[in-house]
Amino acid sequence: xxxALALLGTVSASHPAPRQPQGVPAGxxxxxxxxxxxxxxxxxxAQSYCKDVYRGxxxxxxxxxxxxxxxxxxxxxxxxxxxxxxxxxxxxxxxWESYWxxxxxxxxANWAPTHPFHIVTTCTTLSIRDGLWRSHFCFQLRPFICxx
Length: 148
Hints:
four-stranded antiparallel β-sheet, single chain, C-type_lectin_CS, three-stranded antiparallel β-sheet, CTDL_fold, C-type_lectin-like/link_sf, PRG3 protein, Mannose-Binding Protein A, Chain A, alpha+beta
């Protein structure tokens, strides 16, 4: 089964998924690495870039400490546009819902007042100024944060 999944690109046969360390919130792991990419991409373009270049995905955030870490990391790149992170808000089964693209649990949020929008499907940015999350149209060109 692992070989079949590895051939399909969903699991690496030589690098099994890291185990969850004790004392770390569900959905968060200390082994993750992050990369701020200053090339401007749409949300889907950013997802593809993270997958193709890092074999990862857009960052999911599961704690205030991780949110602050990513805010500071992005701030070191002198970017002025808030980067994409891996959250989407859309209507599912008749209700608005925010979720992480990597399917990790939605156990932390840091929305700015009036966000997320509940009008159309939106993608999420992390403000390097205040650390708050904001909804934006997914076709906008922005820098982004990959996790791998």
